[in-house]
């Protein structure tokens, strides 16, 4: 049974109102210029809520990620904190290996113990290789064992073009990632551990009386930018994963292999400006929102509320929101017993005859089977119903 919701229906009324109030005139908004030229080896712009890739180049190719690697290190650390396996108040011992880590440093001292909360900031803000090694050893026992954890988490996130050999991003054979994979990782950091995300926007951190700035220049230039991480080696070039939120829309950008610190900031700004100007994310339905009340046969209730398990949002060019149509395809016959979460069809959102979003429609409640007499009566009624329909 397929049902089309017109825009004046109850479900889309508020959605349409928000579009009418905030969209540009339709004819003007439909003009979307070509994406800007980006001076980077690879890049991507992704909507953080929908996962929609707005523009990209060589996004699946494998390149050295340099200190962007530390996003995975901090992601695992944040996960362990959330699970309660470790605490920010833990005192972490500093090994000789951590102390001797070359490159960017937090300046921790061998033989001392450091607060885990300070190491988290040392990894994210100061890009400390020493802090990364200390955390890797504390969580997994050794950096090699931690790298194995990194690769397992990468697989779970769908990072198909990533492989990690260390926790720092220092050059190593068979250590690589891609722009798309790093965008997926940034999305996971933002969505899974929002309570830790504020660290990525901090501009300075002082440890051992040494004050170091966050290397992400966009934190000073654009108030909407609040993360995430920079990276640089000779092989990787200058890299930046950034995220910004404007008017309820959050974007993630990744640039890899630019020529300088200034270039990675400028190229990221180009991507953010274009995507925010010409695209918009529409939040269509909340998780658990009632889409329809369906007829139930042989149940203790004769009506079933159905909806979506997860919230639904889409990212489309500005001005195209008024052309959206929702198509609800429900099972013709729904019989008890019904378990909450059981699927009974699908919801498709169409734009110019193309499916731009789709999700299963599920039962929002459980309904037990009716008694024998009710089931017999419904079986008779259903027989004639099927004849007519």
Sequence-ordered SSE layout with sheet pairings:
Blueprint: E1 2-5, H1 10-22, H2 26-29, E2 42-47, E3 53-57, H3 70-83, E4 91-93, H4 96-99, E5 113-115, H5 116-124, H6 129-140, H7 143-156, H8 179-192, E6 204-207, E7 210-213, H9 218-221, E8 225-233, E9 237-246, E10 249-258, H10 261-278, E11 279-285, E12 290-295, E13 303-307, E14 312-317, E15 324-330, E16 343-351, E17 354-363, H11 372-388
Antiparallel strand pairs: 1-15, 2-3, 2-10, 4-5, 6-7, 8-9, 9-10, 11-14, 12-13, 13-17, 15-16, 16-17
Helix pairs in contact: 3-6, 3-8, 5-6, 6-7
- State the separation between the terminal residues, measured CA to CA: 10 Å
Rounded to the nearest angstrom, the radius of gyration is 26 Å
Biggest sheet: strands, sense, closure? 6 strands, antiparallel
Q: How are helices and strands ordered from N to C?
A: EHHEEHEHEHHHHEEHEEEHEEEEEEEH
**Global shape:** elongated
Structural class: alpha+beta
Order of strands across the biggest sheet?
1-15-16-17-13-12
Percent of residues in beta strands?
25-35%
Uncertain stretches: 1-29
Number of β-strand runs: 17
Global mean pLDDT: 91
Helix content: 25-40%
Count up the helices.
Answer: 11
Function: Removes C-terminal D-alanyl residues from sugar-peptide cell wall precursors.
Domain Peptidase S11 D-Ala-D-Ala carboxypeptidase A C-terminal: 279-369
Catalytic activity: Preferential cleavage: (Ac)2-L-Lys-D-Ala-|-D-Ala. Also transpeptidation of peptidyl-alanyl moieties that are N-acyl substituents of D-alanine
Organism: Amphritea pacifica
